[in-house]
Amino acid sequence: MNSRERFLCALGGGIPDRVPYCELGVDEPVIRQLLGEQIPAGRVFDAGEYADQPVEVEKALSRAIGRDMIRFNFCPPIFAEKHTGEGNIAFYGDGFLKGAADLDRLALPDPNAEGFYAAARSFAAQKDEFALCASCRVGISPTYLSLGQEFFSLALYDDPGLVEEVLYRYSTWSAAVMKRLAGLGFDAVWTADDIAFKTGLLFSPKMFRERILPYVRRVAEAVTVPWIYHSDGDLTAVLDDLVDLGIRGLHPIEPDAMDIRAVKKRYGSRICLIGNVNVNTLSAGTPAQVEEEVRGLLRDIAPGGGYILSSGNSLASYCKIENIRAMAAAVKRYGAYPISA
Known about the structure:
With 341 residues, the chain is an alpha/beta fold. It has 14 helices and 13 strands. It has a 7-stranded parallel sheet. It has a two-stranded antiparallel ribbon with strand order 1-2. A two-stranded antiparallel sheet has the order 4-5. A hairpin with a 2-residue loop joins strand 8 and strand 9 (200-201). Helix 5 (140-147) packs across helix 6 (149-158) and helix 6 packs across helix 7 (160-178).
């Protein structure tokens, strides 16, 4: 199998030749250490979201670490303060949308304009042997980031109409983009909308179902390719809701928040699990410890198929390069079916 076939087989719940290895997020310092000067410097925010790497850099990165997919960013702009931290890492400050008078600032690209998809078409035409994932949002995180996390939390009670209007605009935009992905040559959509802390949801399950889920469902109905949902934290309280939306994969099943083995037992026949080598091990452990953790995941999660190995979040700037290489090497060494790790 090539990378695309391997990825899609596992994402569909099948048993490929070996467990695929994937990462949605790779910080620029990691890419630079792996590839040297092949990437442009200084591109942190682009149109209000994280900047893409060119397709040749994405493919070079995947070949360098044995990753089976590449990604193209379709995330909408976020209307908030933007800052750059150490290592050229981007993060958001307070949101700009504090009331109905601010809604004019929520200007999104036209998702029906053919020109909006020109870069994506070019990128997709050069994907080669890799699965091509569209990195998107369903609208939850753009909403709370554009409002500001604290203001959003209060507005759920004090001004729910504002929250729902912003959610409506973002979810409508995302749904329009989702409808186009298959025709552009994308193999999967990978949405990243964090909705939880390590200890539980950012809001009550009741609030999620009443105020937020109807807008997520609108996006779900528009998805035209296999869908992976990413959120950090403990999703246990709403995992049934997410699975019922039709997600095909769940990522990253954060190891300090959820037990991937318990998730496998309960949901392994319904969705593909994608995770979850602890970022703490990748950053503070040794290559031998990383290999041991990978072998344990392959042994316990991979049998029966429907499993893709990745980090438990992303390849953050503080992950050790030797540990990243050890993780990728261990998948190749021990991930062939039948699993004997």
